């Protein structure tokens, strides 16, 4: 039997080099996935995840636990994508990669919410800890965004699972995840709704975090000497929030909104995935490694929960010590490091 090579975008959507014999080989992708790109992506994500996990344990930053779930899902996702790129006819790694890569950023965003809450309680003057100043309730920063993000995560999971189930039970040789998204109207609508909710959540958080970064410039006159510490952590939060938001916008645009629309170019070209999904997430992991939160916070701020009463007392005690030396010029104000928060304020480092 003569084996016929097919073009990448013909009716059956087989990748170049795919062929038919007595049994039909089916490619779940719309394009021919590049194995070298999958190898590089898996290695980069894996190394960044290992570096992040090492710092998580070293600095005992238990409040950052959602980031660990996110990196585990990313590693699983990109590993499965590599396996799927090598063996395109194996459905299981393809579907697992689709779900893990789609849903993992929700956990990375949750880590940013928690870190932002720690920054606010660490750096904001006590008299400014209110909704009017922060545009959010300081005591409920993390729960507010995490609950909203978790709800959007569940909605996305329901939609993605519906699409995946349809794909898994489709025996058509021309099937693809795009065609499944177009056929399963309910699953597609649910998935897009979850993505829109997620974009709204990320965008709201990004605006609030960026605004705090700007208005905190006015806190310099009340600075306790910890300015450079928490400002670096603010770089992480704002940079990561912006990248995750852009990635969520790409995902929302990529999914077909109905049977005749959707940005087909984003769906049918692999470089769009690497540029608008993989690269932003790799950049988020990189900035988390560079500006790891626990390197710029006292140990009392890195546990699973934050004792807000102690945080207020700590700032009051340090502020009282600073105000007691009225003759000291501002230029001589010392710069604190995390290990300096020991003793007087009752903080163990």
TrEMBL record:
The chain crosses the membrane at residues 34-56, 62-83, 95-120, 140-168, 189-213, 233-250, 271-292. It is found in: Membrane. It is a multi-pass membrane protein. GO terms for cellular component: membrane. Keywords: Membrane, Transmembrane, Transmembrane helix. It holds the Pfam family RTA1. Residues 318-349 are annotated as: Disordered. This is RTA1-domain-containing protein. It comes from Periconia macrospinosa.
């Amino acid at each position: 039997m003569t084996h016929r090579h097919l073009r990448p975008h013909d009716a059956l959507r087989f990748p170049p080099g795919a062929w038919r014999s007595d049994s039909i080989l089916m490619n779940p992708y719309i394009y021919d996935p590049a194995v070298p790109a999958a190898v590089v992506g898996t290695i980069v994500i894996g190394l960044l995840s290992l570096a992040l996990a090492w710092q998580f344990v070293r600095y005992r930053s238990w409040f950052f636990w959602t980031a660990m779930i996110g990196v585990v899902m990313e590693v699983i996702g990109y590993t499965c994508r590599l396996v799927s790129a090598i063996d395109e006819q194996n459905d299981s790694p393809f579907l697992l990669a689709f779900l893990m890569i789609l849903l993992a950023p929700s956990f990375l965003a949750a880590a940013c919410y928690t870190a932002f809450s720690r920054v606010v309680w660490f750096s904001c003057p006590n008299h400014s800890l209110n909704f009017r100043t922060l545009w959010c309730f300081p005591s409920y920063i993390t729960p507010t965004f995490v609950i909203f993000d978790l709800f959007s995560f569940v909605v996305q999971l329901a939609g993605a699972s519906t699409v995946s189930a349809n794909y898994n039970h489709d025996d058509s040789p021309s099937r693809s995840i795009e065609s499944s998204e177009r056929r399963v109207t309910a699953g597609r609508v649910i998935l897009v709704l979850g993505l829109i909710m997620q974009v709204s959540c990320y965008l709201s958080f990004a605006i609030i975090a960026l605004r705090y970064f700007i208005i905190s410039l006015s806190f310099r006159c009340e600075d306790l000497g910890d300015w450079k510490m928490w400002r670096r952590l603010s770089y992480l939060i704002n940079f990561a929030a912006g990248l995750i938001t852009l990635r969520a916008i790409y995902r929302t645009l990529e999914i077909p909104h109905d049977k005749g629309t959707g940005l087909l170019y984003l769906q049918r070209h692999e470089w769009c995935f690497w540029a608008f999904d993989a690269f932003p997430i790799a950049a988020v992991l990189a900035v988390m490694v560079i500006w790891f939160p626990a390197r710029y916070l006292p140990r009392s701020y890195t546990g699973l929960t934050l004792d807000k009463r102690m945080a207020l007392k700590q700032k009051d005690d340090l502020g009282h010590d600073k105000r007691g030396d009225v003759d000291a010029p501002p230029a001589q104000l010392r710069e604190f490091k995390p290990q300096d928060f020991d003793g007087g304020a009752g903080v163990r480092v």
